[in-house]
Amino acid sequence: MSLPSVENRPLVGDGDAKPLGEESPGGRGTGAEGGGRLLHAALIAVVVGFLSAFLILPLVLVFSEALRHGWRAYATAITEPEALAAVRLTLLATVAALVLNTVFGLFAAWCLGKHRFRGRNILVSLIDLPFAVSPVVAGLLLVMLFGRHAWLGGMF
Predict the structure, then answer these.
(1) b/e code 113-138 from CB counts within 10 Å (16+ = b)
(2) Where are the alpha helices (DSSP H) in 52-134?
(3) Angle, nearest 10°, between helix axes 120-132 and 81-114?
């Protein structure tokens, strides 16, 4: 028994539906005649405006300020010992976090996938916690815990 072909069946809706794959006279099937294109263009203009205001303009301002004294001053600032130490520390912390997250993530995934155990829901909640907490709140929490004058600040 074979299934009937659905290529030329009308779409669900009123009686003047087009067969699958056939477009409306406007080319995109926007609905209202002409009004859909204007709304589409207006929404794209709003998105481009927001992207320009909140992404592109700040990037241009940052780079123009950073390179105000030319490339030579920028290269000198980057090759200072403090800057190189910061880059080294960042790379070291990145590699350490990557390795630890991979090892613990695989272990947690294996445990959650293969076993049912007491405290499983707590582990799932701890894994999902970073997705629920704002990065700003998490950063403030870390500063309050490990800052210079914080509870655990003297340990590090």
Answers:
(1) eeeeeeeeeeeeeeeeeeeeeeeeee
(2) 57-66, 71-78, 81-114, 120-132
(3) 140
pTM greater than the 0.70 cutoff: no
Contact 61, 68 (CB under 8 A): no
Tell whether the torsion through CA atoms of 30, 32, 36 and 39 is positive or negative: negative
Token output for 67: 């390179």
Per the CB < 8 A criterion, the answer to whether 6 and 19 are in contact is no
Contact present, 109 and 123 (Cβ < 8 Å): no
Per-residue model confidence as pLDDT tens digits over 71-122: 888 888 889 999 999 999 999 999 999 999 999 999 999 989 999 989 899 9
